[in-house]
Amino acid sequence: MSVLIYAENAAGKFKKSTFEAVSYAKAIADQAGTNLIAISIGNVAADDLAALGKYGAEKVLNVSNDKLKNFVNQAYASVIAEAAKAKGADIVVLSNSFSGRGLAPRIGVKLHAGVADGAVALPVLDGGKFTVKKTAFSGKAFATVELTSANKVIALTPNSYKVVESSAAGQVEDFTVETKESDFKAMIKDIVRSTDKVSLPDAEIVVSAGRGLKGPENWGMVEELAGLLGAATACSKPVSDAGWRPHSEHVGQTGIAVSPNLYIAIGISGAIQHLAGVSSSKVIVVINKDAEAPFFKVADYGIVGDAFEVLPKLIDAVKAYKA
Ligand code: FAD
């Protein structure tokens, strides 16, 4: 028995959400009194693979196969499931990232495992029961699910578990899996980065704005605040529908779901479809001129005021703080 963590990388580098998931998987392994094995797919440097040991992975399986250089949902799911079988892992952990959300159910089918995606806390093992708290209804609620199957797949929501550094370097070993042609029906041929800015799904701080900003010409102050805070920029759906901002910034039920440590919402009403994608943020700050705006109900901090007056003051304050 062991726990297997899929250590996701982006262009050969592990992300913070991966370290969170390894730390989380280590805590599960400790709870179950077993060891933690990591699996990495793609071209990651040997030092970075071994560094997963710092977060608790005793062994790191390295799958470097040219066909698997870029993410292929079906093939990655097959490789991870095969590794779980080969190493006798009955719990597979991964990050509830864009790719993790595609992988979790596929691995679940292959291992006949119960799946808890969007997990936000460590499982509770009580009297033979294995329960996991997770987000439900696109983040509008939490559910506690019991996984009754022998095998289990858990996808951890980014920013919901802290990175814990524990033991020393992990022992890296090559792991080879025969790939099947049928796993490569859809493949990524090329990745073109549209921007060098902080990636929205991974951002720890997000500065987001809505129709209250009146037009695309007013986004300079949003960009400036985001730049000062090292934040990603985001927007509401009508803003991207109107072409004021790119669709890649649209958050919510029909856009990207984010869970940063800090979400600053400027001139956004807080419609339920918007909240669905942002409500698992740790701290929410709302700036809106309407004190009755629904967003204030879920805000940790609220500023009732005109964004065109509040934002310049906020920018000056951050500049003064950083000076
Ligand atoms: P508005 O609702 O127009 O709100 C603008 C806000 O700005 C108001 O609260 C106003 O008080 C404030 N304001 C105005 N001027 C100022 C000022 N000068 N200073 C400060 N505040 C000011 N929406 C999403 O965002 N994401 C989704 O994924 C999404 N999916 C949807 C799916 C479906 C099926 C449907 C039906 C809708 C979806 N929507 C989604 C749309 C959603 O219902 C709302 O219409 C939308 O979120 C509203 O965007 P907004 O808050 O920017 O604009």
Automatic annotation (TrEMBL):
InterPro entries on file: DHS-like_NAD/FAD-binding_dom (IPR029035), ETF_a/b_N (IPR014730), ETF_a/FixB (IPR001308), ETF_asu_C (IPR014731), Rossmann-like_a/b/a_fold (IPR014729)
GO terms, biological process: fatty acid beta-oxidation using acyl-CoA dehydrogenase
Gene3D superfamilies, sorted: HUPs, TPP-binding domain
Top-rank taxon: Bacteria
Ligand binding (FAD): 211, 267-274, 288
PANTHER family assigned to the protein according to its UniProt record, in alphabetical order: ELECTRON TRANSFER FLAVOPROTEIN ALPHA, ELECTRON TRANSFER FLAVOPROTEIN SUBUNIT ALPHA, MITOCHONDRIAL
Family (UniProt): Belongs to the ETF alpha-subunit/FixB family.
Protein name: Electron transfer flavoprotein subunit alpha/FixB family protein
The organism of origin for this protein: Mucilaginibacter gilvus
